[in-house]
Amino acid sequence: MYDLSKVTERTTALAAVEEILTSIKPLVQIKQGRIGQRFYLEQNDQRVCFLLYSGTCVAKRIQDSLVLSTIRTPSIVGLHDIFLAKSYMHLLARGDVEYGILSVDEFFCHVESKNLWKNVCRMLMLSATRFCEYQREMVGISNYELICNFLTSLSMENFDVRATTTALEYIQERSLLSRSGIMKTLSSLKMGGYIDIRNGLLIKINSLPKKF
After folding, report:
1. What are the tens digits of pLDDT across the range 20-40?
2. Which of 64, 87, 96, 210 is most buried per CB count within 10 Å?
3. Is 152 exposed, middle or buried (0-12, 13-18, 19+ CB in 10 A)?
């Protein structure tokens, strides 16, 4: 799963997002969210922006709960699909979060009044980069390559995720691969000494062969 941090270290996009969040904070009620709480991008038939001030969420496809992306602080979610009749995803808190919710119309009015369009442009360019990388890493590749990409992604997650999420669960909730196929590949990689897995948890990646 593509991680936004791969590109944000080399851009000023995060600073642009932080500036928007700081500017808009007086307009929203900052709330505390808990692990497992769901957030939707529509309220009362109105599209809204989700403003993440602290914590981590995952974006899930509504129709089948497939995990599409990890959303880390600072983030603004809700602008990428506003021309669709309905949003196709919701957010799920991975731990305690601080967040605000604002209608898309109110968000745009604030951006206009504070002349923050350049910040919004940088934020959306970052989102486009993220989507391109997701396509490169997840589309049109073999099942084995897909599993390797997810293992690498899991190894870069924070300790809480790595300590509580098995490699099988992590891959299953982010792909349409069969449980048996994932298990077979993980078992073979473990037996070959390419990865270290204990009680289902990924401990270490030693090396992942390009073909297997």
Report:
1. 999 999 999 999 999 999 999
2. 87
3. middle
**Per-residue DSSP letters for the chain?**
---THHHHTTSSHHHHHHHHHHHHGGGS--EEE-TT-EEESEETTEEEEEEEEESEEEEEETTT--EEEEEESSEEESSTTTTSSS--EEEEESS-EEEEEEEHHHHHHHHHHTT-HHHHHHHHHHHHHHHHHHHHHHSS--HHHHHHHHHHHHHTS-HHHHHHS-HHHHHHTT----HHHHHHHHHHHHHTTSEEEETTEEEEE----S--
pTM listed for this prediction: 0.85
Cα distance between residue 190 and residue 187, in whole Å: 5
Contact at 8 Å (CB) between 89 and 68?
yes
Confidence of residue 211 (pLDDT cuts 50, 70, 90): confident
What's the token pair of residue 114?
A: 């504070």
The whole-number pLDDT of residue 198 equals: 96
17 contact partners, CB below 8 Å, separation of at least 6: 74, 75, 76, 119, 122, 123, 126
